[in-house]
Amino acid sequence: MRVLAFGFAALFSAMFLQVPQVLAEPELKVVGTGDGLDMLQEIGAGFAAGHPDIKLSIPPSIGSGGGIAAVSSGAERLGRVARPLTDSEIEFGLVYLPIAKIPSAIFTHPSAGIEGLTSEELVKVYSGEITNWSELGGNDVRVRLVRREDADSTLQVLRASMPGWKDLEFFPRSKTALTTQEAISTAREVEGAVAFGPYSKELEDGLAILRIDGHHPTDGAYPSAVTLALIYKDGTMDGEMQAFIDYAVSDPARELIRNFGGVPAPN
Q1: What is the model's pTM?
Q2: What class, spelled out in words, does domain 28-102+226-264 have in CATH?
């Protein structure tokens, strides 16, 4: 009986090994910055509707640096960044394809009671010189500062373009948000909070988008914006990657970028 059982088990194993294994289709992930994430996910949804055969994923932020590392190592095929590539990254074989310019925005929890600031007032807020919104004509609510890490793309653009930000030293008690989504959620949830990040029309829902020196982020005279770009490694282009890139610069995608408050990159 034991011999028979062993023989049956061996036969079953042999049959199982002969069954062809079905391999899962590889997923095309576009990884990296949180800047413009909602906009890019909408572009992805439009792409997926026309390409049901391609498994596309645009996951939460791992930062521009994370996207660069993933594509450089070959872990992922496509990345998204909100800063230019360095010379060494270009020499390593990364290709940079801008798709949109996204204004940087300063936004607050509605409890602040503020609609706009001068650039000088904004510096005083983030340096800690102003600690209550009532000092600026707002509500009697304590200012809760939310900043980003030094390498953040929006912060780098603000330092390069917003008056007074080049040498701005942040108030030590400010909170450092590690992703754009964390900065937004903190501003939505914490009374008196002020934060910054890439502008999108969805920010208008539940947040106060501040005019700076009288200019809304979508105004032509507003100084600060980041460029959202796709990256890939030279020599790795395949049909799925090319299809998504073609769609990301197509007329439907460009119209969607405009609807989100961005400016499509020149063709």
Answers
A1: 0.71
A2: alpha beta
